[in-house]
């Protein structure tokens, strides 16, 4: 402990048995001459730090209080009736062949999906590349047409599109009114 | 691993963004043909000396796609996995209220029958109780079956009517028109750019002129999706060296085609697989860059 701070030495802090000399307390008169700006600066820094720390502490406290006031978004718990014993299905699947079949099928599925995803990404890149090349050539061929092509289309959104269903819509289907049944 | 090797060699030449880095990692060997290099933004890659300074005819083409109406059929792996997922879900589920209700009703009907006729044997009573419940369930099933959904294959499928939009509902259909010439007759509707219009307006105009006013489509952007370049025969190169055809991708909205018989002979709505029988191999290869088309089986020039 070569670097014993001045503050520590004022209080007569003992570092080791060897450093007996430092134990002697310095009372009062020691540093009158050197009441320098350096000391003031240090305390200023310390003061600023202390201010910041207190501000941070206040902000943290406020945050905690606000968090308590806010509603807690917790997932609604599962209704206890589903957890009762009489609701459990006792299906014993101890067949090792079946287990292995399932595991192999899931692995095959994972590979299949990975390849699908990979080819999708490649396709996206191809589409992007082909559009960019078209725009580059257009820029050289005709700057005015290029400028028109870059404009955003205000009529594009809102865009609504229905996805595919399992069976096609029945032509001229008259939907019957829903019957309201009350038990 | 090959993927990391390739990524490192690219990173020395370019400085890919993190997103492109993610792509590179996933795409592995397919790196040299993907994406644009950063220095290519200002100077396009041109073949031959200043080919872009020659006189090209600017043409807009329009690709009209009727999206699938029904979900695609599953292949064997997908059906097997679907069954597996269903069984796993059933195994992991808990007994529902309906099942308990059914059990209680069976017990109740059994009790009722016992009270009525105490002379019968227990087995017969159980049989009767079961039959009662089953007849109830049958009634419910028949009520559900009284709704007939439309069939996934239509009449147009059976007749193979290529002009109908009701065909091949599980796949996308693309519009092709036939010009009166021998080679490269089937193509997507296209026309030359005129006046002060934008390329997209050219595409809209050409579609109306060739296929009638009833057909409505949805454009996805003002920018073209792809560019097809071809040179004219030397005898015809007086005005232009060739044509630059800018393709616009659109989705079919509604309406029937009324073909302009002055310019065109025929039209057809075809799937990607069928398109191979109509268009030239180069055209098909070009279209597969920005459309989801199945790969040609006998194509030796296809670079993956």
TrEMBL record, chain A:
Principal location: mitochondrion
Keywords tagged on the record: Mitochondrion, Ribonucleoprotein, Ribosomal protein, Transit peptide
Cellular compartment(s): Mitochondrion
Compositional bias per record (Low complexity), positions renumbered to this chain: 41-62
Ranges of Basic residues composition bias in the record: 30-40
Family: Belongs to the mitochondrion-specific ribosomal protein mL40 family.
The protein's name in its UniProt record: Large ribosomal subunit protein mL40
Organism: Trichoplax adhaerens
Automatic annotation (TrEMBL), chain B:
Matching SUPFAM superfamilies: Nudix
InterPro entries linked: NUDIX_hydrolase-like_dom_sf, NUDIX_hydrolase_CS, NUDIX_hydrolase_dom, Ribosomal_mL46, Ribosomal_mL46_N, Ribosomal_mL46_NUDIX
Region annotation Disordered: where it falls in the sequence: 140-163
One GO MF term: hydrolase activity
Entry keywords, A to Z: Hydrolase, Mitochondrion, Ribonucleoprotein, Ribosomal protein, Transit peptide
Domain of life: Eukaryota
Localization per record: Mitochondrion
Record-annotated Nudix hydrolase domain positions: 146-292
Gene3D superfamilies per UniProt: Nucleoside Triphosphate Pyrophosphohydrolase (3.90.79.10)
GO CC entries: mitochondrial inner membrane; mitochondrial large ribosomal subunit
UniProt record similarity statement: Belongs to the mitochondrion-specific ribosomal protein mL46 family.
Identification of the protein by name: Large ribosomal subunit protein mL46
Lineage: Eukaryota, Metazoa, Placozoa, Uniplacotomia, Trichoplacea
